[in-house]
Amino acid sequence: MGLPYSYRHTDCDLTDRPCQLQMRDDGDERMMYRRRLQYDKLGNLERFVENVGTKTHETVYIYNRDNRVTALTYDGDVQKVSYTTGTLGQLIRVDGPHENATWVYCYEDSGSTYIRSLRTTDTLGTVVQRMVNLV
User: At 28, is the secondary structure helix, strand, or coil?
Assistant: First the structure.
């Protein structure tokens, strides 16, 4: 049994990145799904728009000067990410909205990462998970 669409079309930009995908109904060529991608001048994904039936969902990404995502807006709901760097410019902490997670990085004298730890909290700020990775 095949998928419920007969027409699938993908458009790409000059660098061969996908910028649009369309899927149409098998019988009447009605649009069932459409995805549009927009990139900034540095090649970062800036906007992702999906049309599913009659519904539209939009995700917008904001980047800092290091090309790290600092904010993500999904259907108007803003989620911010903050980055903290040490005196040598190394990333030492990332606070993100996804699962209320905080990542902390520790470095050896040589500059190599050797510990990455995660702390996840619930909506009241109670720590619910801790994890440490030796990198």
Answer: coil
